[in-house]
Write a structure and sequence with these properties.
NADH Oxidase; oxidoreductase; 187 residues; Nitroreductase; 36% helix; alpha+beta; Putative nitroreductase; four-stranded antiparallel beta sheet
């Protein structure tokens, strides 16, 4: 596995004193733009807030309280939005999948830049829709906090425990199958 993928993780502790440089933010968004998509539809859009600006505040205000505890220290908050209905009015059944690929590429680019990304599903999509006047056919799916690693000691006890816990993944033999369900595809 590439070391960049192995190094990726989703921290809660972000350094509130370090900002993203414009070239870094551009590189993250460019990486997302070059993701593959069904029929090259590119159904992703992003709302990008930098700490201290009005966009960041509106995104932050839409987060669930348990995410507000830590996400305000991130250098940027980015909402991943999927175009779930085409301009012709047809549903795009792969929009969420394609947005996920774009977010994954953004995340890998962030890791390459020495940044960290923590994606969140706990936010109020309707509040985001209203705050940014998102048109029908576009759905906010996730918010990503992006920034430099902070100090776990500054987190509340419950989050510090998560932050310092070992990273664990389901074994490959329980994830990838061949022949019949449950039979490992690789040893």
């Amino acid at each position: 596995m590439h070391p960049l993928l192995a190094a990726r993780w989703s921290p809660y502790a972000y350094d509130p004193t370090r900002d993203l440089q414009p070239h870094q933010l551009r590189a993250l968004l460019e990486a997302a733009v070059w993701a593959p998509s069904k029929a090259n539809s590119q159904p992703w859009r992003f709302l990008v807030g930098r700490r201290g600006d009005a966009t960041f505040k509106a995104i932050f205000d839409a987060l669930a309280p348990e995410n507000q505890v830590w996400a305000g220290n991130a250098a940027a908050l980015v909402v991943g939005v999927a175009q779930t209905v085409s301009e012709a009015g047809h549903p795009n059944s792969h929009a969420a999948y394609d947005l996920g690929q774009a977010m994954a590429q953004l995340t890998v680019q962030a890791t390459a830049e020495g940044l960290f990304v923590h994606q969140m599903a706990r936010f109020d999509p309707d509040r985001v829709r209203a705050a940014f006047n998102i048109p029908a056919g576009f759905d906010p799916y996730a918010v990503a906090a992006i920034g430099y690693l902070g100090h776990p000691a500054e987190l509340p006890d419950d989050l510090r425990k998560w932050e310092q816990a070992p990273r664990v993944r389901r074994p490959l033999r329980e994830t990838a199958f061949a022949g019949v369900w449950g039979h490992p595809a690789v040893d």
